[in-house]
Amino acid sequence: MSSEADESVTFSLTVDGAAHEVTAPWSESLLTVLRERLGVRGPKTGCAHGRCGACAVRVAFEPDRADDDGHVLCSCLLPAATAAGCSVRTIASIGGPDGELSDVQEAFLAEGAVQCGICTAGFVTAATELLDTDPDPTREQIEAALYGNLCRCTGYGRIVAAVETAARTRREATP
Amino acid sequence: MRRPDGQAKVRGEFSYAGDLHAEGMLHGVTLRSPHPHARLLRIDTAAARALPGVHAVLTAADVPGDLHFGLTLRDEPVLADGVVRYAGEPVAVVAAIDPRTARRAARAIVVEYEPLPAQTDPTLAADAEPLHAEGNVYRHLAYECGDPRARGVVTVENTYRIGMQDPAFLAPEAGMATPTADGGVRLEVATQWLHSDQRQIAWATGLPPEKVQVVLAGVGGAFGGREDVTLHTHACLLALATGRPVKMEYTREESFLAHRQRHPGTIWLRHSADASGRVVSVEGRVVLDGGAYASTSPVVIANTVTLLQGPYRVDNGRFEGWSVRTNNPSCGAMRGFGVPQAAFAHESQMDALAAALDLDPLEIRLRNALRRGDTATFGQRFTQPTPVREVIEGLRAVPLPPAGGKLPGGVGRASSPGSVRRGVGYAVTMKNLAFSEGHVDESTATVSLRDGHATVHCACAEVGQGFVTVAEQVARTVLGADTVTVTQPDTLIASAGSTSASRQTMASGTAVHRACVAVRDRLLARVARERGLDAGLLSIQDGAVTCDGTPLVDVAAATPGHTVRATEHFAHPPTTALGQGDVYVGFAFSAQRAVVDVDVELGLVSVVQIASCQDVGTVVNPTQLLGQIEGGIVQGMGLAVMEEVVVVDGHITNPEFQDYLIPTIVDAPEVVSVYVTDPQPGMPHGWKGVGEPPLCTAVPAVAAAVRDATGLPLPSVPIRPEHIALGIGTPPTVTRTTPRPPATTGGTALSEEPADRPGTWESEGAAGH
Amino acid sequence: MLLAAPRFALPETVGEALSALAERPDAVVVAGGTEVMPDLLWRVRTAAGFVSLRRVGALRGTSRDGDELVVGAGTPVAALVDAEAGALAAAARSLGTPLVRTEATIGGNVVSALPYRNMLPALLALDARLELTSDTGRRTVAFDGFTTAPGVTRLGEGELLTAVRLPTRPCFSDYVKIGRRNAQYVATVSAAVVSRNGAVRLAFGNAGPVPLRSDAVDVVATALLDGRAGPDDLRAAVADAVDPPEDTVASAAYRRHALGVLATRLVVRAQVDAGLGS
Ligand SMILES: Cc1cc2nc3c(=O)[nH]c(=O)nc-3n(C[C@H](O)[C@H](O)[C@H](O)COP(=O)(O)OP(=O)(O)OC[C@H]3O[C@@H](n4cnc5c(N)ncnc54)[C@H](O)[C@@H]3O)c2cc1C
Ligand code: FES
Ligand code: FES
Known about the structure:
The complex is a heterotrimer of chains A (175), B (769) and C (278). Chain A is built from six helices and five strands; from the N terminus they run αββαβββαααα. In chain A, 34% of the residues lie in helices and 16% in strands. By secondary structure, chain A is an alpha+beta fold. Chain B is an alpha+beta fold. In chain B, strands 9, 10, 15, 16, 17, 31, 32 and 33 form an eight-stranded mixed β-sheet that branches. Chain B has a seven-stranded mixed β-sheet with strand order 3-7-1-14-11-12-13, sandwiched between helices. A four-stranded mixed β-sheet of chain B has the order 18-26-27-30, sandwiched between helices. In chain B, a hairpin with a 5-residue loop joins strand 15 and strand 16 (279-291). By secondary structure, chain C is α+β, with helices and mostly antiparallel strands. Chain C has nine helices and 14 strands. In chain C, the strands form four sheets. A five-stranded antiparallel β-sheet of chain C has the order 5-6-11-7-8, covered by helices on one side. Chain C has a four-stranded mixed β-sheet with strand order 1-2-4-3, covered by helices on one side. Chains A and C meet through helix 1, strand 1, strand 4 and helix 5 of A and helix 2 and helix 4 of C. Bound molecules: flavin-adenine dinucleotide (FAD) and FE2/S2 (inorganic) cluster (2 copies). Flavin-adenine dinucleotide sits between chains C (28-36, 38, 53, 73, 77, 95-97, 100, 103-105, 107-109, 111-112, 117-118, 155, 160-161, 186) and A (49-51, 77). Chain C: Keywords: FAD, Flavoprotein, Oxidoreductase. Chain C: One of its GO terms (molecular function) is oxidoreductase activity. Chain C: This is Xanthine dehydrogenase family protein subunit M. Chain C: It holds the Pfam family CO_deh_flav_C.
């Protein structure tokens, strides 16, 4: 039998700006590391197999490169150690420190896109990336960007409305 | 008004049951049976116990109290007792220092099974070898009204099948139990019904109920699937055995295995109508597969059978149903509670009748629409608003969507506009609201007000539906409170019943309203006393106490430092057993029109739009209401075209989100929602439950639209691509019958004995001529 | 090497990856992990460690080599959604979800070798070649025949798939798939077409244990393209050639039928592209 030490990997990880040294089993997912080892519980476990998007986070694999703003992925699918030395941003990096809401968060609240809310962090994370790359998406583009996120409560109508509202707010704010 | 919990939710800071943790907490896991039916020959936990880091391994022998629990019959063991009756049944539970160790320990438990034949066909259950001392029939019911043999000029009959749907709430089951100083246990858990959990945990732990405290933890969706106890008791037993907090959290796969699904069913229906389309008689038989343990199967079957008539006047009929035990997964509550099954069947029949008589589908529904004052087949009079015609007319006024939209098949791009046919389908349904058949439907709330800050305490479980919004809204309007706290529900206050049956705005909303009114009256009385005014002239408006319309003082400053508190209870008028009067508290009606595009050659469907007109009493919060309608509709269309727990020889083949498909944002239709508002008597502001009707109606509406596009009978849901592409499914039998007026009228008579084995009555060809 | 532990390695070059693998013979190669991680969760695969290709820069991205497009095996599917070859782009665009595509790699898809995976029929129709690298050097093999059974390939022990090579000669190509909902689904069946200089080459997914094509089908498809055969002829040829699975998702009969429909529709699209069709 192998020793515990053989089974684990130690690496560094920056999460929402804070540096961490993580020791975890070699196959442990980034989601488990965030939630169970670092106590970062914004990303949620809906399925642990990539289908629901509740665990979505934004990862920059080359954080030193100015143009690597990272991309959104399912943290349940990423073996955590493959992100060694990388920067992870969760829902906690969206919105301000004192309860301030981002335009996307504000719109989700205003449009009633939140019911039980277990999917919300994932949707907000994915929708934020969408609007960062395309501030004026069509309904079709919104759907194309968000079909990796499942919601069982809302039926999605209010979520589409929220993303449209956030896009409008963002366009009006940046002349 | 916005959701009070919304800020924390959009920031990812809201704490759900899965986020629970405590210093020194252990992790619990469950060992489940791999067999749908087997005798337990031996369980050896020694190796598991010996593993470092393992604190407890429990089997049935370690349950200190009563081994059995259940929402109706107490027929389900907390941990398997000598025999397992479904694949996934808990056999042992383990608590260890971390989940990995706990899982390793569970694998180290040696269980010797002697597999027994799995009885998985519900139609054979009644006659089969009993799987349990309680027998294989959870409930059989049968009744007649008028003359079931009455006939009109045309009679249609068919057999309809409904698949097993999973509630698929997005946050799997989770909870944490902590031993308390008094020798009891405190459980924080995602649930729908704290007091029911408390009672069942008390049975198993042998503790008096007051030593079992249940507190609501953040719930990530429920839809009926959290009405039954799953990990609750296990976590408590482990906490009591180890003296440490124990957290349990299911994987998605376990979630499928552990919680109750919607009953799959087979429904045979025969409708006879006169030349104008008026229904002369309806006969129906239902078999629901309840799976291994009772859960709410005895109650669900009554809903399905009694609501087979739909929102139509039916004077003559006979109805019979069974919910039975098999070695399939246990079924229980899911949003709609037996009615989506009935709705799919009766609406399919209405369309078949319309086709046989060459009538417009809405016209035939209008001609049969129930009215206030009519009597249901089960004897209850519709004494409350019964706006069936109104919802149909309201729906008719919604314009059809233009051609175009999302193509069937979506991202796979197999369809092109040329390969698509559009279909339009309608459905109208009736859903009972609140508990039924004598089950007490009540709630209690305590409200206190101090310096303009209101605190609401109620055991109503917020599962996402928005009770917290309603509670806050009521406290603000009635009390003029500046700020409102809705405290975390627990069992320190009396039961609020389950968050199900579309009932919480009515029951707990009313209890909160009453408590707020009582607090307001006490506050005003005090102000009147202190100022020597006539209390009758005082009221609260816009946050101020006013006298005869003139502001006196802000509510926040009216009685500085003084707390005014009141506890109020609400109960609906009692209901009765079937056949003895009012079986149900009330009803809601809903009409929908689905527009679909179908690629007939490949069997692919795109649901373009669903228009809904629903009877909602009053509009409490428009955004929240729309959210309930849209969410319900999308779950219903899921059942209509994609969602099915596939069970082969007692095993779920798709206990995950790869092959159990729920609608994505691409699948979701545009929803147009209009309302009929006819205030519900006896409710503050005429509130009425809204959560279930959208789902019940969407199932038949989408199916009807796909039939319209394809011309196929499609008697089963979910409709599979191959049903369309290969034309699978038997069409209704249409018989031109000799009219026969009813020989007797009125009255509902229960029959004790089954008229026959589950199946159909004699064929119309033999009986009708 | 960015990180080396007894059961985990994070190499930066192909060479490092190969030696990391040699030192950990029971470790599994993991690229995006979108296949491996669910397999571990469901315990359908065992592994005694990971050699991650995630940080091997040389495996990511596309380049031209003569008349071939070279796609690094570690290229994320998201980077291929606008690929020039229509079939590749369409297969990429409909793979999984936007979140999955950022991690899922083309190499992982090819090596998964499951007949319903998106890339397989596309690569078969496009007549792709695979570049395989091991300690002993590099070899290039045809994709056709690489998969020998569901989940099984001709990849050698300790060998890595380093690139997928696609001919760049102009052609019309497309890929379609069907399932039981309209996004985020495993293909019930799928099909890809390449039409070049009047000749049609079709390939099918989940039409048998391995990605499938047949000369007999292509002869009829080519005849359909220029009007010498009818749609029914092609459907009959496809029905003859395929041997689809029967499972709880769909019957073999439906799959056979649908494969014929997809084939016909793809040829019609090729016709339209060539200005031949309706
Ligand atoms: C939610 C979800 C949806 C999905 N939907 C689809 C879909 O629609 N269509 C589809 O086709 N697939 C789908 N997949 C499967 C998967 O995403 C793809 O097959 C993906 O391309 C695999 O790539 P990967 O890099 O993640 O593979 P990994 O999981 O990293 O590896 C897969 C296999 O390939 C091996 N491997 C990987 N790279 C190499 C290499 N360079 N050399 C040698 N061996 C290698 C690994 O050892 C492993 O056996 C889905 C997966 C998920 C989780
Ligand atoms: S938890 Fe990661 S996608 Fe569901
Ligand atoms: S709000 Fe409950 S899953 Fe989306």
